[in-house]
Amino acid sequence: MKSGVSRKVMLGVAHIGFLLSLLLIVDYLIALGYVSEFSIPRLQRFISAFLNYPTNPDIPAGFWSHLTTTLYELGVACLIVIGIVLPLAFVIGIKRTVKEGVLPWLLAFFAIPPIILYPIIYLLLGIGPSSKIALGALLGSKYLFLYVVSAVYYINWDLLKMGRLFTNSQVRLFWKVGLPSILPILVSAIQIGVSHTIVGVIVGEIIASSTGLGFLVSWAETTIRVPELYAIIAIAIIFSLAFIISLNLLEWRIKGRWKTI
């Protein structure tokens, strides 16, 4: 486990090194005049805008209020995806009769591009946090649901039958035997679902909102604040990476816990 963590840390350092090298190359091209500074700011201006963004007095209503809004919307959307859609996907995947009746309709619904549903959701829920929560939950549910339903096929049913010799508790049997057999797929499903939930929330804020990190992207674009635009995009990326890294840490803890059971 430690070697796996070290490998991921080294890979992360390599990625950061590559990104810094790329930024320096682009900055050098801007200095030579090959790239317009109107479209991409110099590295110094970008860093200054990034560091001063939380205290920038020009931001409407202040940066922290927008960050709080996005955190709230994302938190509720993730609770819907993990707390409601995840168990529902398990039930549909395990119950054959339910799967045969419901799955084709859900697949047909998930085949609809989410962008088509955006206007309907805004008409129903308005441009407040509810519509962003719905957009994020809708986009995240699509991928998490498909992964979880597919993961059910990888449950080791032979081990479950053997486990019935030692316990009559279906919950304990599934927790001890069934769930560990699909844990890697399940964690990947949650990671992908949360990633797309973040995308849905922020894109929803960009399309129509007066608050949130997505709104700040739209604000910087419409007011032609190029350094601030790249700074808020970088903040949104870091924000998303923090969620994914947190899920990775949770995955390592869960795997370590199951190894000790």
Strand and helix map with partners:
Elements: H1 2-32, H2 43-52, H3 63-94, H4 96-110, H5 114-125, H6 129-151, H7 157-163, H8 170-181, H9 183-207, H10 213-222, H11 226-259
Short description:
The protein folds into two domains: 1-40, no CATH class; 50-259, MetI-like (MetI-like fold), CATH 1.10.3720.10. Helix content is 81%, strand content 0%. It contains eleven helices and no strands.
Keywords:
mainly alpha, 11 helices, MetI-like fold, 261 residues
Task: Give an overview in words.
The chain is an all-alpha fold and 261 residues long. The chain has two domains: 1-40, no CATH class; 50-259, MetI-like fold (Orthogonal Bundle). The protein is 81% helix and 0% strand. The protein is built from eleven helices and no strands. The longest helix is centred in the C-terminal third of the chain and has 34 residues, at 226-259.
Q: How many independent structural domains?
A: 2
The CATH homologous superfamily of the largest domain is named MetI-like
Rg for CA atoms: 22 Å
CATH architecture of the largest domain: Orthogonal Bundle
Q: Number of DSSP strands?
A: 0
For this structure, the CATH topology of the largest domain is MetI-like fold
* Average of the residue pLDDT scores: 79
Shape: globular
Give the CA-CA distance, first to last residue.
16 Å
Helix content: over 70%
**Largest β-sheet summary:** none
Strand content: under 5%
> Which structural category fits the helices and strands?
mainly alpha
Q: Given the structure, what is the number of helices?
A: 11
| CATH level 1 name of the largest domain | Mainly Alpha
Low-confidence residue ranges: none
Helix/strand order, N-terminal first: HHHHHHHHHHH
